[in-house]
């Protein structure tokens, strides 16, 4: 069995505490916690907000639907010169 046992985890934890110190580890833990909290908040805000649509795209569709065939031909002639 190639897993890490409890005594090995304890030794690794002691070495990490000796290398970094408790104050630095506490700061890292707080930063990580606030990052996760901010990520969760952003995800929940994204789900509650409706998707925004492109205003120009909607106007173009409405314009084409309300335009008559004559209006469309006039626009094509203006574009061609």
Automatic annotation (TrEMBL):
InterPro entries named among the record's database cross-references: TatA/B/E, TatA/E
Membrane protein topology class: Single-pass membrane protein
Pfam families from the UniProt entry: TatA_B_E
Principal location listed in the UniProt entry: membrane
Location relative to the cell: Cell membrane
Ranges that cross the membrane: 6-22
Ranges of compositional bias, category Basic and acidic residues: 42-81
NCBIfam families attached to this UniProt entry: tatAE
Quaternary context: The Tat system comprises two distinct complexes: a TatABC complex, containing multiple copies of TatA, TatB and TatC subunits, and a separate TatA complex, containing only TatA subunits. Substrates initially bind to the TatABC complex, which probably triggers association of the separate TatA complex to form the active translocon.
UniProt function note: Part of the twin-arginine translocation (Tat) system that transports large folded proteins containing a characteristic twin-arginine motif in their signal peptide across membranes. TatA could form the protein-conducting channel of the Tat system.
Protein name, as recorded: Sec-independent protein translocase protein TatA
Organism: Vibrio ulleungensis
